[in-house]
Amino acid sequence: MTDTPGRAAGLQTSATVLTVRQVRDYHALTLVAPAVAERFRPGQFVALAVGGADSARLVRRCLPVYEVKPDYGGTVEVVFDHRGSADPGTGWLVSRRARDRIDLIGPLGRPFRLPRDPVRCLLVGGGPGAAALFSLADTLRRRECTVHFLLGGPTAGAVFGAQSAQRIGDSATVVTEDGSLGEAGTVREALPAVIEKTGADVVYACGPTPLLRAVSAVATEFGLPSQVSVEEFLRQTAVCGTGLCMTCVLPMIDDDGVTRMVRACADGPVLRGDRVRWGDLGTIPFDALGAPRALGGAL
Amino acid sequence: MTDLTTRIGPLELANPIVTAAGCGGTGRELARFFELARLGAFTTASVMLQPRAGRPTPRAAETPSGMLTAMGLPGPGIDAFLERDLPWLAEQDVPVIVSVAGNSREEYAEVARRLNAVRTVAAVEVNLAAPNVEDRGRMFGRLPGPAAEVVRAVRTAVRRGVPVLAKLAPDVTDLVNVALACVDAGAEGLSLINTMTGLVIDPTTLRPALAGVSGGLSGPAIRPVALRCVYEVHAALPTVPIIGSGGVASGLDALEFVLAGASAVAVGTALFRDPTAAPRILRELEEALSDRRIGRLADAVGLAHRPPGRVPPQISPRRGAASPGRVSEPEEKLP
């Protein structure tokens, strides 16, 4: 009898490291994990145990998937930021070499919802999370959607995948705050013009929380649906990635209009941008289901 | 074949490995990784009367060999629990221990009373680490008096035949006294230990790392404390069954708890790193018992309390266990 019955075969696997490489300011780690590659859908993530089997580090690192490939039976490439990081966990990942083994759980979380019709899609990204947009772009193109990119960051080095976006996108706009790549400016400033120019029908985004907040707000102003992956929030708050620990919760408005605390890992990481209460992240809004009562309340 | 069955008062479990309250989600999340029927029992997160959002994020910080969490007892409330979560658990062919909590003694009792409506509750575990509003938010289990009052209220509310267990945290002056008070008040078993309070400060923000400021420390970092608690309480109350918990991550860890006096062992934080930890620990515990030629788990409970000379030293040091007294090679070659 194995620990993983058929229904979950391969969800947790000891993956073999193929390569670790630096991509601009980030690191990309490619792992051989056929069962994960086979089931992966764009927007999902993987949770890596760091430090080896006897490690004292118990928190899994939840990382976005850049791409899956059929090589070696199936590989998964994740992207993360270690530059300037005090986290010895990502330091351990950076120091992996080919043939090392990493305990991996995935694919996890809800993927990006895909349009039924061939529509015009705008994919907005920043930070290492932008990596999650490229497998989405492939899938959208196979569905004959038009795919436009808007990527941004503080500096050229912080923009992941600018060249890939130019190659595979119907258009690609890059903005940096210091003007070192593309136009000078922020994603928020550039977004309205890009939406108008591309005639986008839907906006997808992945990256830092302030970027997602801006994208959701602008998309809503234009009356467009937005699908955003709260990749950075997940990475910063999650312990397990599997929905057990309840540490990665954020306030979201449900279909019935009630705000509930939902798990970024299991209910996300892809969420409807217009439903997330971005201004209330890191709080329990007073009107959320189960929020603490006013002082002096009974029970 | 090792006999792994164990008893928590009137409750018989097929094996001693259970999940710790608040670490197994609703059960559905773990069931993606293994069949819950392989557990001795599944313990739910603490259920309260009303839905509860819990604490803001950040709720967790990684610490050496552990983690600090301030969750604030999030949960759907007893009504949603009975409607949505418990019926699903009841179909999994695993005994369900329902953890209950409250802001007052009356709330604990009311939650426990509502559980009588269903026949699928194997035991009720009273989480005495919930903050007592009438005691400036300090936990009920801090002192024998309030702990006993809550246990008595729950014992009165819960149907006869369903055991009531008291779960205690170690941050008290005299844990044995609190345990004794709970047993006097009707607890048929004890669950030891809950997390211990700790603090982490973020050197970037120069503020506490958790939104709740302090939090509960769990993981292997607290295992020696947990073992000491189980050992002391078992010494004082040898007939009271104990579910031991605190940083159990392997079969040998579980064995330590059994030897200290635990009849069952709860796996908590380990599930976050390794969701299949529980069946693995069970397999390792079975091997560890068999290596030591202990045919029945029940025979190992509290074995560490015997004087050194009387413990049969049957294990080779090569098999990785510390052995009190003399060490001799087993006569038969072990596989």
Instruction: Report the CATH topology name of chain B.
Output: TIM Barrel
Instruction: Name the overall outline of chain B.
Output: globular
Strand content of chain B: 15-25%
N-to-C SSE string of chain B, H for helix and E for strand: EEEHEEEHEHEEEHEHEEEEEHEHEHHH
Order of H and E elements of chain A: EEHEEEHEEHEHEEHEHEHEEE
Cross-sheet strand order for the largest sheet of chain A: 10-9-8-7-11-12-15
CATH fold label of the largest domain in chain A: Rossmann fold
Strand order of the largest sheet of chain B: 3-18-17-12-11-8-7-4
Word description of this protein:
The complex is a heterodimer of chains A (299) and B (335). Helix content of chain A is 21%, strand content 30%. With 299 residues, chain A is of the alpha/beta class. Chain A folds into two domains: 9-108, Elongation Factor Tu (Ef-tu), domain 3; 120-280, 3-Layer(aba) Sandwich (Rossmann fold), CATH 3.40.50. Chain A has a seven-stranded mixed β-sheet, sandwiched between helices. In chain A, strands 1-2-5-4-3-6 form a six-stranded antiparallel beta barrel. In chain A, a hairpin with a 5-residue loop joins strand 4 (61-69) and strand 5. In chain A, helix 5 packs parallel to helix 6 (209-221). Chain B has 335 residues and is an alpha/beta fold. Chain B is built from ten helices and 18 strands. In chain B, strand 17 (242-245), helix 7 and strand 18 (264-267) form a beta-alpha-beta unit. In chain B, helix 4 (144-157) packs parallel to helix 5 (175-184) and helix 5 (175-184) packs across helix 6 (223-236). Chain B is globular, with a radius of gyration of 19 Å. Residues 321-335 of chain B have low confidence and may be disordered. Classes of the chains: A alpha/beta (299), B alpha/beta (335).
